[in-house]
Amino acid sequence: MRKISKILILDGNSSQCLPVIRSLYRKGNWIALVCPGVFSSGYFSRYVHKRLVWPRITGNEEEFYQIFLSHINSVKYDLVLGLSDVSTEMLACHKNEIEKFVKTVVPDYEIFSIAANKYLTMQLCMEKEIPCPVTINGDEADNELLKSALNFPVVVKPKKGVGAIGFNILSDPESLINRLPALRNDYGGLLIQEYIPNQKQYTAEVFCNSNSKMEACLISEKIRFFPVTGGTSSCNVTIQFPEMELIAEKLLKELKWTGAANIDFILDPRDNTPKVIEINPRIGATVKIAFESGIDFSKMLVNLANDEKNEQPEVYESGLVMRNLFLDLLWFIFSPYQEKKQAMPSFSKFYGKNIRYQAFCIDDPLPIIGFLLGYIVKYANINKLQEKLGIKRERNHEFRTRDKIIG
Predict the structure, then answer these.
(1) What angle do CA 219, 222, 226 make, to 5 degrees?
(2) Within 1-60, where are the H helices?
(3) Mind listing the pLDDT tens digit for each residue in 24-59?
(4) How many CB atoms lie within 10 A of CB 366?
């Protein structure tokens, strides 16, 4: 069997592309990276042999797929990796057609579609008695069910999406019934679930082999995030949490998952149980913390494509800090004074043997340029910033500050 050597990587504008391409390059692979423009972190990396500028995949899925299909038909690659929800979904959806030209390491679409849909994930958890918030389908529930099925307040959010976008907390049945039509119009399919007080959030970077056996699991606590009410983590710290690892293992086994995934948890203070919030069906944005801890996801993905076994990773060290400096700055601007004062590790601690940065590496410093420019361009758009903060302008509707909870 031909070994992997020439690799096409999508999503060069993602932070997770940096540790992936760095690891693959150092192992002697030839790397082509797809970027939506020069304002992409991966575009500036010295660990890339060829840069391809294609339209942004989000919102241009069909155009992107046709360009991609034409490219892999004309250029021979051994493996293609998708690093975002949208690109991974494209690979899973068209897996049979794509694998006529190049290998993938994504699960079948039937499996992927469950992980990508927050309601279907929660439904699986409830059926298999995996800890999660009690959840109902917001598209099918009638008014009587909405009044009786859940205790209030409740969380309403899109079945598909990232971060805190579309996230709402509604305090009573009347508010829920009145707001649902507008929320459905804005975000499509919705789920409704019990409110869990947001005190501690976690993320698990996991990897499963072709038999859905979990071969790696790294847990980190989300110390800070933006928006401050719950969103994308800006500072993570590795911890040991065996109970959470067992929950992740059971979930992925029931799902029949293969490859990399990222699972978000919240610790329910009412019973001290970690509960699954969602699965991100791809390598997580904070995966660099796993690489820095000695768990090489790139090597595992290549071994999966080559039908080779992975060595059991060594136990990782607790206390490794990973910061997204741009989002951490936004956290500092928007967070209350008391949270700034109590933050551990301190926002002002920028150096230390256990501190790493999501988009900066001393031997590959230039990607920070594309990373920062990309964020600046994104949040210079006031609508994007309002959407990230969970603020939505509607006629005859006042702005509403959301309680602190996971998005």
Answers:
(1) 145
(2) 17-26
(3) 999 999 999 999 998 899 999 999 999 999 999 999
(4) 14
